[in-house]
Amino acid sequence: MDITTVAVDLAKSVFELAFGDGQGRVTGHKRLSKDAFAAFFVNLPPCRVVMEACGTAHFWARTLQALGHEVRLLPLQPVRPYVRRNKTDRADAGALLEADRCGGILPVPPKDAPRQALQGLHRLRQGWMATRTARINAVRGLLREFGHDLPQGPAAVLERVPAWLADDTFDLPPALRQALGQAMDEIKDLEARAAEVEKLLRQEARQRQDVVRLLAVPGIGLLIATALAAAVGNMEAFRDGRHLAAWLGLTPKERSSGNRRRLGAISQRGDPYLRTLLIHGARSALPAAQARRAAGKRLTRLQAWALGLADRLGHNRAVCALANKMARIAFAVVRLGRDFDGDFVPAKARTAEQPA
Length: 356
Prior knowledge:
Radius of gyration: 26 Å
Strand content: 5-15%
Strand order of the largest sheet: 3-2-1-4-5
């Protein structure tokens, strides 16, 4: 059998394979268990392997690359339209072969083990913080049912509720008092776990030059810098900074036709975790620039641009634009290996500013 490309529909225990020849025609299918799947590629001559960038894809990509195969991971959304019939494992594998022939679908670079471990730390912390928020909201809601209101924010719950529960005269049924005490213990435990993860992230950050450079950018802290390093690495998958910002969902939606161009709100595509971090980072960087202006201190070119945008378009639009700019700066800092300069002037801007 002439096999040049193998498309793999990944699963937990059963893998569907579709084989393609040099003309892109499907020449056969095979269904393998997990153990047989690994053994199959050991004996197969080097070929091109196409998989969706989904769960376990990066692990199998590293495994197959070590065996001498070329691995191409395709994002899920562009592959779906190539499923021409009912969704089955065989149809999904055939769709991967068809999608692989489309040059417009950009592949996802396989992550190495350290980058995937770094991303795993973020996923664990994200889950624990979401559970912490849910417990805090539950405690707040239950206390409100008995007439005890708390101000907004987690600090009020963490400071007042333990004192209330320790007070025997506090008006609350005994059974609920005990359960709320357990909920507060769980919240403290979740915060301790998140703090341990942040400690591990700091250790990783000291060992990576790209993270150290990112930490110098206003609005980018430990979480954003390490999350970017884990998700996109050395930025080689992106053509330029705008491509990275678009991948993060920080560029406007467009509904244009002919000579009419319509731009809307940000697209909110890509990784919502990274986009949320960048938005929060911009929300902290913009008030810091406003405080410097109010104190009469010197502003960098980046800070002056962000404040001018806020004055013209409003705070929220300026925050989104600053998050977009932070993503582009992160691309330049990592891809070019340069230290951040808040007064940097691009070559095009320098040319435009020169007198005629």
